[in-house]
Design brief:
two-stranded antiparallel ribbon, 10 strands, 12% strand, globular
Length: 355
Amino acid sequence: MSAVGDDANAGTTAVRDAYRFDEAALARWMDTHVEGYRGPLTVEQFKGGQSNPTYKLVTPGRSYVLRRKPPGDTLKGAHAVDREARVLSALGGVGFPVARVFGLCADDSVIGSWFYVMDMVEGRIFWNATFPTVSDAERPAHFDAMNATIAQLHGIDYAAIGLGDYGKPGNYFARQIGRWSRQYLEDQDAGRDPDMDALIAWLPEHIPTGEESSIVHGDFRCDNMIFHPTEPRVLAVLDWELSTLGHPLADFAYHAMMYQMPPDIVAGLGGVDIGGLNIPDEADYVAAYCARTGRTGIAHWDFYIAFNYFRLAAIFHGIKGRVIRGTAASAHARERAKALPRLSALARQSMEKCA
């Protein structure tokens, strides 16, 4: 993983006080568990990483990335770095673009929480969905690379790569709506939001019929990918915390939601003159995914968008709770928390389009 980019989330800082750990203990663990490791070790913290703190591990010969559970109390089922390590290892084995995992540590005594160490892939991260540092002529190819990558993911036979028990096939929307509703309701520190309450009541009653199951990333955005330093090619997809077995159209709709998303909330194209930037429009982007996955079109598109806005709003609600409790991993978590009312309002607007 590399954090080269064009946003305040890019780059590293000294490890923030709340996320310090025994670096000597980590070096001892790496000496035993990471093939080819040679110290001395220097630790920096990436500015991004809303949920699981992420660190750059620098040695004279190479750099690595460490992802860990945050310190302190966490919600049940959240921050499952062991699942991240598992899916990365399985996907890497069949040539899907991910960073190589060197090892997982489930011993809290080493640095205070579970973690894994992976390769640091050098390349470009685009924090801005307009790909501002790419020429107009090259921009369509970068979008097509994202489209091809998510289509490739959804076409992988998860059982054949040992992920048959990575989630529960079928009934994905009901389970996800239930999960995020529970997390929202249980996080009393973050308070209540009337738009979220409306969505919790409406979504379970309007789930489209039809079941599909694939590996889903859960947060497939341009800023969770590392592109080749000069080519329109994805070298690694990052941040697999929300991955599971689920409905591929939910995963793709979350990704395509970039066309509607205000860019100051997360990487999005809302309000952007995409024609002037030579960016494929939403209809063409959806059509390209359909062509790659053997579909003639996507029915119930507005429901999938409403569901994904709701899910993202629930995630932001969780970030707000962690800010209040003092366990938020990212230096930019407070800005994310402040955006919650706007995001939940967008979710409700999408819901109302379905009525």
